[in-house]
Design goal:
Structural class of chain B: mainly beta
Oligomer: heterodimer
Distance between the termini of chain B: 34 Å
Structural class of chain A: mainly beta
Number of helices of chain B: 0
Distance between the termini of chain A: 41 Å
Number of strands of chain B: 11
Helix content of chain B: under 10%
Largest interface: A-B, 23 and 23 residues
Number of strands of chain A: 11
Order of helices and strands of chain B: EEEEEEEEEEE
Number of helices of chain A: 0
Shape of chain B: globular
Chain lengths: ~110, ~110
């Protein structure tokens, strides 16, 4: 089955700096890659996603890049703010006849210091 | 308005006493998932329904069962909770033609 590795496990940055979280996946058939943000005690919330036919996607301060050949994708957050502090999960999935399950990375705890 | 609702938000049960967690959705999505999330870990898929078609993950313990009586509702039954089953239980839904999963707020289960 699919295996998703995520690095780093923790990331501390100063407010205003950029943060980068990287993930690799094992199954070349994976074609959908979402990123979820989870604040303490709350639900995971989708912040951005990318499909395999796209190399990069941006939404304000957040961007995701995908390298299908190398089977890795990355989350980039620019101009970080204290409210960006949370755990971020990458995931990968394969669409197969409408059945689709997410394989999550282990998460990255991002701490943005004022 | 809440789209994926989970009740209760907090559940305390005794070791070995059956417990049922519920999930409902207003999105009319045909796929529903149950995840278990322990502290500082990623959500772990237990099972999912595609319409009425039930799909169990290979490593989901037999102690965990699920029911989906209609499109809107899905239940997680833990027949004999152990201390190791204390966790956050997340329900998620997905429309059949989409990839995005929408998570409910979760039920935090405590086993005494």
């Amino acid at each position: 089955g699919e295996n998703v590795e995520q690095h780093p496990s923790t990331l501390s940055v100063q407010e205003g700096d950029s943060a980068v979280i990287k993930c690799t996946y094992s199954d070349s058939a994976s074609n959908y890659f979402p990123w979820y943000k989870q604040e303490l005690g709350k639900r995971p919330q989708l912040i951005i996603d990318i499909r395999s036919n796209v190399g990069e996607k941006k939404d304000q301060r957040i961007a995701v890049t995908l390298n299908k050949t190398a089977k890795h994708f990355s989350l980039h957050i620019t101009e970080t703010q204290p409210e960006d502090s949370a755990v971020y999960f990458c995931a990968a999935s394969i669409r197969n006849s409408g059945y689709s399950t997410l394989t999550f990375g282990k998460g990255t705890m991002l701490l943005v210091s004022p | 308005d809440a789209m994926v609702i989970q009740n209760p938000r907090y559940q305390v049960t005794q070791f070995g006493k059956p417990v049922t967690l519920s999930c409902s959705q207003t999105l009319n999505h045909n796929v529903m998932y149950w995840y278990q999330q322990k502290s500082s870990q990623a959500p772990k898929l237990l099972f999912h329904y595609y319409d009425k078609d039930f799909n169990n993950e290979a490593d989901t313990p037999d102690n965990f069962q699920s029911r989906r009586p209609n499109t809107s509702f899905c239940f997680l039954d833990i027949r004999s909770p152990g201390l190791g089953d204390a966790a956050m239980y997340l329900c998620a839904t997905r429309g059949g033609g989409e990839e995005t999963q929408y998570f409910g707020p979760g039920t935090r289960l405590l086993v005494l």
